[in-house]
């Protein structure tokens, strides 16, 4: 069976896997924000990896696969980009607003025992937080002096948001690839680009960051890695008819992942094994109705960090690492459900523009003539 044969758009486990990845982010942040130190995977891999980067890479793999499918099915780049904007931006904007009017005031109150002075904080005030982060790129990751003394994440109010800007840049890239027909007949262009990004990333890992010292803006560390995984997911969709889905290959990939994590060169090995494992699970796990009542993974990802901050401030971390993580996951789930049903789903139901602005004018003229 090939990946193309295994992929069923209406029946797969991608929603479940995204939820698991979001929970993995809560786990790693639970260790650090709760004051428990590094997680077991960090120790096992001798500092090579922890559940956070593993989860983020997984998001980019699945996103690359699905977003490329979305671009291929829509000839108009305007329709494609509009769909991407309405999926990611409304939930993000509401998260910023909730952080400023609810989460940060709670933290400020717990720290200072009064709300006096909260809105007047300068620099890095709450209004600045909204303005400087409005267009997805995090230009301000703090509000006032909150958490200034935290040992591992000082000032950071929501440490998960930085990946969204990187993901949107990947969306734009796929949009451009569609313009040159690289998501259809000229799929070799996408394959070549992926090979270049992977090659430079591997050189980076093997040389200790030499290329990044020469091209710091082109090879930004976090984006470079995530772009590689996104493009691998994209190429996996484009070449799904050539990729075999075999249990034996999944087992071999898993074994290599574990071995490299314990020994060395995990980040190089994972580039070839992790995407295969994740896609194999997506189309072989029997959990195909996970999002029956809504896709809550995005909301989990958006809200978990500040909620974990508040719970640690309230002393919930005294329950132990897993007690703290599970309480945080439960509270976050409430916000995720509300986010999906009150914000995200409402914008997903809106109709996309039928064509580009240049196409709308002739159509209007033709209608008027008729």
Question: How would you explain this protein's 3D organization?
Answer:
With 370 residues, the protein is mostly helical. The protein has one domain (3-363). Helix content is 68%, strand content 0%. The chain contains 15 helices and no strands. Helix 5 (77-112) packs across helix 14, helix 7 (162-179) packs across helix 10 and helix 11 packs antiparallel against helix 12. The longest helix is centred in the N-terminal third of the chain and has 36 residues, at 77-112. Residues 354-370 have low confidence and may be disordered.
Mean pLDDT across residues: 90
| Strand coverage percent | under 5%
Q: H/E element string?
A: HHHHHHHHHHHHHHH
Helix content: 55-70%
What would you report as the Rg, rounded to the nearest angstrom?
A: 22 Å
Shape: globular
Main sheet properties: none
Structural class: mainly alpha
Q: Could you list the spans in which at least 5 consecutive residues all have pLDDT below 50?
A: 354-370
Q: List how many beta strands DSSP finds.
A: 0
- Amino-to-carboxy terminus distance: 52 Å
How many helical stretches?
A: 15
Q: Count the domains.
A: 1
């Amino acid at each position: 069976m090939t990946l193309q044969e295994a992929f069923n758009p209406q029946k797969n486990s991608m929603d479940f896997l995204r939820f698991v990845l979001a929970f993995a982010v809560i786990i790693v942040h639970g260790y650090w924000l709760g004051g428990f130190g590094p997680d077991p995977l960090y120790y096992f891999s001798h500092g090579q990896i922890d559940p956070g980067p593993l989860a983020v890479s997984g998001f980019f793999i699945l996103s690359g696969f699905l977003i490329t499918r979305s671009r291929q099915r829509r000839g108009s780049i305007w329709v494609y980009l509009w769909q991407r904007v309405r999926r990611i931006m409304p939930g993000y904007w509401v998260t910023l607003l909730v952080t400023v009017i609810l989460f940060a005031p709670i933290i400020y109150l717990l720290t200072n025992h009064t709300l006096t002075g909260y809105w007047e904080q300068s620099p890095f005030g709450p209004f600045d937080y909204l303005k400087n982060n409005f267009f997805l790129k995090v230009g301000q990751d703090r509000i006032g002096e909150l958490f200034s003394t935290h040992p591992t994440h000082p000032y950071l109010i929501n440490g998960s948001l930085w990946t969204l800007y990187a993901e949107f840049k990947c969306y734009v890239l796929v949009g451009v690839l569609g313009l040159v027909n690289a998501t259809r007949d000229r799929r070799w262009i996408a394959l070549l680009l992926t090979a270049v990004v992977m090659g430079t990333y591997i050189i980076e890992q093997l040389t200790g960051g030499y290329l990044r010292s020469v091209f710091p803006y082109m090879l930004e560390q976090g984006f470079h890695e995530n772009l590689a995984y996104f493009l691998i997911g994209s190429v996996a969709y484009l070449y799904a008819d050539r990729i075999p889905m075999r249990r034996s290959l999944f087992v071999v990939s898993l074994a290599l992942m574990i071995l490299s994590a314990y020994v060395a060169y995990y980040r190089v090995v994972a580039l070839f094994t992790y995407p295969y494992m994740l896609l194999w699970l997506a189309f072989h796990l029997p959990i195909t109705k996970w999002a029956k009542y809504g896709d809550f993974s995005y909301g989990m990802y958006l809200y978990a960090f500040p909620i974990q901050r508040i719970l640690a401030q309230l002393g919930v971390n005294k329950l132990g690492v897993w007690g703290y993580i599970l309480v945080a996951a439960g509270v976050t789930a409430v916000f995720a459900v509300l986010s999906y049903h009150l914000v995200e789903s409402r914008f997903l139901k809106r109709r996309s523009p039928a064509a580009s602005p240049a196409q709308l004018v002739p159509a209007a003229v033709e209608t008027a003539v008729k």
